[in-house]
Amino acid sequence: MTAPLIDIQDLRVGFRAGGRRMVEAVRGISLAVRPGEAVGIVGESGSGKSLGMLAVMRLLAGGARITGGRILFDGEDLAAAPERRMAALRGRDIAMVFQDPQSSLNPALSIGRQIVDVVVAHQAVSRGRAAEIAVDALERVGIRDASARLGAYPHEFSGGMRQRVLIAMAIACRPRLLIADEPTTALDVTVQAQIVDLIAELRRDLGLAVLFISHNLQLVAEIVDRVVVLYGGKLVEDADVFAIEDSPRHPYTRLLKACVPSLTAPPGPLFAIDGAPPRLGAMPPGCPFAPRCPRALPRCAAEMPPLTVEDGRRLACWNPQ
Amino acid sequence: MSAPILSLSGVTKSYPRGGMLGSVFGARAPVLALDDVSLDVMAGDVVGIVGESGSGKSTLAQLAVGLTRPTAGTIRLGGEDLGLLMRDHAGPWRRRIQMAFQDSSSALNPRKSIGRCLEETLVLAGVDKAARPAEAAALLGRVGLGAEMLPRLPHELSGGQRQRVGLARALAMKPDVLIADEPVSALDVSLQAQVINLLGRLTGELGLTLLFISHDLALVRALCRRVIVMRKGRIVEEGPCLQVLESPRDDYTRLLLSAVPKGIEGRRRPPARTSNPEFPRP
């Protein structure tokens, strides 16, 4: 088995909530991704999925900080790396694409300028050569006539095209890991499908490892090899995508699958999970899903189940299916 | 056949291109947000309006509820002209049609408690002062929330709870028609289903006519009996929901259907999907 490209070990992220109290939002998550592997990270708001990945990029803001654990990238601990080192890695070895393509681009600079800036920041090339790299990256993400569009500004592109520009910027330096945080949520459905296909294609052609964050299991299942399910800052299940689809074992995974509306289900009420995710700072001592779980045992509310490993599946549940 | 409760006839809405400058240098053609749309909605109908950004679906909602006036054409609500109704009979107009918005955090005043927000609406509904607290609690009950929410401020609620409060406020006027503009698109999957089921239950219990605006065909399929597909300000296809979604006649409807994520089934049987990156911007 190949060594992992990134090996996140017991990652904890917390922030101060009034006074000296620390609230933990990512509560000990371990996760490894091999070179070229695509992993989906699925969870609801507050599951810790976005905060965990921002921690990997060391882009935490608003008082949030890494409170424990290690993030080994190629063996180097990013959690402890100096900011200068992170600035060199970010955009070159690890790149991230965000949900909102509108606010991720500088509206006052042409897209060519923005991509060239990224390239010259990381590679010892002239701006002329960097422009060629930018054209190449834009063409790779499906923007036709790219050299003529280098001078165009973000507002001249539709939302989907702006997301393509951001993906071009992310891949321009040939990173080994692409983190995509809900990259299609702000886009129209038809454009969403194109962007998902594009990420799958880039991964195949460039050998990129991908961490695809989404609340939509159905979307993630289209392109990833493996799905990691987070709930309340904890990893509850991690398995091969086909295993997650065919035989989910954590009740949350199973219910999450059931409540995605489909075009083939019989019409009528949708399956819904009662209740709401736990609030930050008010996490139950046991399994965070216990209050909403139809299979909960008395023990579930009192004690967090340990993460077990069986047939390549990781699972944290006292009463799995 | 009875008269439609909401009727649009030849409705067009155009905006000057490029905002202020566009109207100063008014040489360029205006943007047609809605282009000669005619539509009848019967009482008790549950209608899904689908389309992408720029399709005109939100413009249609804003026109129907009276937030903006059509450039041409007429809108009739309960048989009466909407413009005249708004001008001369604001009370009956508000009771006939209400709207719930996509973004529940900006639709509620952040400094007013949920109770106060509902009671202010109940004033417009003509409910006596003494009866308002109980009525506000009853409204919350109707959308599946407890009376303990009344003293809370919007930011103390989850997104799903705020969306329910938005619905409760719309229901306070006891409207005949409710327009819900992307009411669940900002919610997590597990909460989406709760709100969709709530809408379904409310239409049944209250005999409410619902216009459900969404880009998610699977949600429309779960909730609506009739669907209208819009593109570039025009209706491209309409009909009974299951019929349209199972045997679409328009290419754009087919494109929308092909774009719905198929999950793992799509990998077992690769879908025929249009991947043209430059599908014309609507």
TrEMBL record, chain A:
The keyword DNA damage is annotated on this UniProt entry: no
Subcellular location: Cell inner membrane
GO MF annotation terms: ATP binding; ATP hydrolysis activity
GO biological process: peptide transport; transmembrane transport
Chief localisation class: membrane
Listed transmembrane segments: none
Keywords, in A-Z order: ATP-binding, Cell membrane, Membrane, Nucleotide-binding, Transport
InterPro entries reported in the protein's UniProt record: AAA+_ATPase, ABC_Ni/Peptide_Import, ABC_transporter-like_ATP-bd, ABC_transporter-like_CS, Oligopep_ABC_C, P-loop_NTPase
Annotated Gene Ontology cellular component terms: plasma membrane
Source organism superkingdom: Bacteria
Domain ABC transporter: 6-257
Annotated Pfam families: ABC_tran, oligo_HPY
Membrane topology: Peripheral membrane protein
Family in the record: Belongs to the ABC transporter superfamily.
UniProt name for this protein: ABC transporter domain-containing protein
